[in-house]
Amino acid sequence: MESNDIVRFEQQQRIAVLTLNRPEKLNAINYAMNDRLLALFDRIEADDTIGAVILTGAGERAFSAGGDIHEFTKSIRSGTDEATRVFCRRGQAMTARIEAFSKPVIAAVNGIAYGGGCEITEAAHLAVASEQAVFAKPEINIGIPPTFGGTQRLPRLAGRKRALALLLTGDSFSPQRALELGVVNSVVPHTDLLPSAMDLANRILRHSPLAASRILAAVTRGINMPIDEGLLIEREQFARMCASQDVFEGLDAWIERRTPFYSGR
């Protein structure tokens, strides 16, 4: 495990656990944390020993309270171009990287998930929330819209009117409401959070990592396209699998009634 870092990295067998590590600041996302996450995702993508990622927060209070207001206020005071470049585009690049990542990313939401913390949850492929989690889109309270993709992903997950009610009021909402809105997949007792996320990751890792990657690509690329274009993407991803060793191993294992052994090739 790599400790004393702004984002802790730990590998447990084939799962990378990334922990946002500013508990004294409720894991607020400053520029250094944003950039460290991007660097770690680059490293994980190139590492064939890692098949899935879990993202969580350090401490007992927060997953992430959002962007570091003290830091990005300085950028806003420096002018529109500066604020857009170093704050908005940086945060959007980070959540886009999570959303389009080639390996499954699971958010384990252990507490406050406000602003950017909620946007990371929206961008993650899957999410498990503690019963102690609480969500909000509070950017309107400081006079800005969400900047890490929240105006786009939440309406796609929850529907336009339900998303707008949260975006325009800034009201907080419970993990149960997040489940109803499709922001998280499940709500579990706090002590079961990481074990539940690990169990979910391991159930995915039973299967071909190539097939998982193709599914992620098809869904992420196709979800905002017309159905005919999405179906073309699906066919492309299927064709790519047909040339792999994993597809033949999966078929042979099914026919022979044995557990497959996937090489990821």
Question: What does this molecule look like?
Answer:
This protein has 265 residues and is α/β, with parallel strands linked by helices. Helix content is 50%, strand content 16%. It contains eleven helices and ten strands. The strands form two sheets. Strands 1-2-3-5-7-10 form a six-stranded mixed β-sheet, with helices on both faces. Strand 1 and strand 2 form a beta hairpin. Helix 3 (80-99) runs parallel beside helix 4 (116-123) and helix 9 (209-222) packs antiparallel against helix 10 (227-242). The protein is globular, with a radius of gyration of 19 Å. The two termini are 28 Å apart. The model has no long low-confidence stretch (mean pLDDT 95).
- The total count of strands amounts to 10
Principal-axis shape: globular
Assign a percent range to the helix content. Answer: 40-55%
Q: State the end-to-end CA separation.
A: 28 Å
The gist of it:
The chain is an alpha/beta fold. Helix content is 50%, strand content 16%.
Key phrases:
265 residues, alpha/beta, 6-stranded mixed sheet, 4-stranded mixed sheet, 11 helices, globular
Topology:
Layout (H helix, E strand, L loop, with lengths): L6 E6 L2 E6 L10 H15 L6 E6 L4 E3 L4 H9 L2 H20 L5 E5 L2 E3 L1 H8 L2 E5 L3 E3 L13 H9 L1 H10 L2 E2 L1 H7 L4 E3 L4 H13 L3 H14 L4 H16 L2 H12 L9
Parallel strand pairs: 2-3, 3-5, 4-6, 5-7, 6-8, 7-10
Antiparallel strand pairs: 1-2, 8-9
